[in-house]
Amino acid sequence: MKSRLFVFFAAVILIVRGAAFAADPAVLIDVPAEAKAKYDEAEALRAKDKLNVSYPIYAELLQKYSSSFSVNYGYGLLLAQMKRFPESGEALKIALNIGTAKEQIPDPSIWNSIGWVAIMNGNFDQAIEYFKTAKNDPKTYASLREETKMKLHNNAGYALMLMDRYEEANEEFHKAELLGSEKAKENIEKIHSLIETQKKQDPDIPGVFTVVVLSVKNKELLDRSIQSITGRIRSSAYGQELKGTDAIDVYLAKNGMYLLALGGNYSYAKAQRILEKVKKTAPDAFVSSTTNWEPYRIGANLPVPATNAEKQE
């Protein structure tokens, strides 16, 4: 199974590689007139993959026009092309903050770009949130070119797939296909094979899957949300089936996300059955693999234990 997943991931990465490297025609280029020629030159060089020539021009522009959305966005895309993904992510965040502060993001394709870079940095949950922002806001989504929408859905499907959320990934790949993506058809065939393989597993044999009802990066948000969510789960019809205080646990994923999960070590089929039972109570719940997780809090209704750092004076 692992080898099949590796082949699939390798194929998909070829499909999405260029997604972060091209911006839509900007609604507004916020570069001063005296710098426009330099900016156009840097962008032209970036488009031709003359990255080492474009880089010093962007560095000069950033020194003078650090508050420009367009300069920071272009610089972030350049860094992505240079495979300097952590730096690219920071540059794109700066551009996004500038655009958000102006209450109008000049080029909404940044949501797709920053999401793609988040994937390359291993921040899959964060990537999904970026994609959601673009998909769920009617004004933002309508302003995207059809090609960008296609990439947005394909990238969202890729991020979901990497989290073993195959059913949701399948939906995104289908949307990309409807927008004209021929390669999405290949993705759909491959992910259908993965889904069928998971469904054929004996539901009574333990596996590595569970149902996540909350996924957050911020520990304070986790602490604020955990009691209300566990309360709703325990008072639901499914909650009556839970046994013991350790049936709802918190895990820390490899990518730094805190995950509130129902039990664990289920087969994919059994986790899907549990998901259907809790969807009304937790509509954003999803099935995920626990392969890269670490226990964070055993028994979600218990106080947070002190970390080793907190125990030391």
Structural commentary:
The protein is of the alpha+beta class and 313 residues long. The chain folds into two domains: 2-196, Tetratricopeptide repeat domain (Serine Threonine Protein Phosphatase 5, Tetratricopeptide repeat), CATH 1.25.40; 209-297, 2-Layer Sandwich (Alpha-Beta Plaits), CATH 3.30.70. 58% of the residues lie in helices and 10% in strands. It is built from 14 helices and five strands. It has helices at 2-16, 36-47, 51-64, 69-81, 85-101, 110-120, 124-136, 138-143, 146-162, 166-178, 182-199, 219-235, 268-278, 308-311; strands at residues 209-216, 248-253, 258-266, 286-289, 293-297. It has a five-stranded antiparallel sheet. A hairpin with a 4-residue loop joins strand 2 and strand 3 (258-266). The chain starts with a helix and ends with a helix.
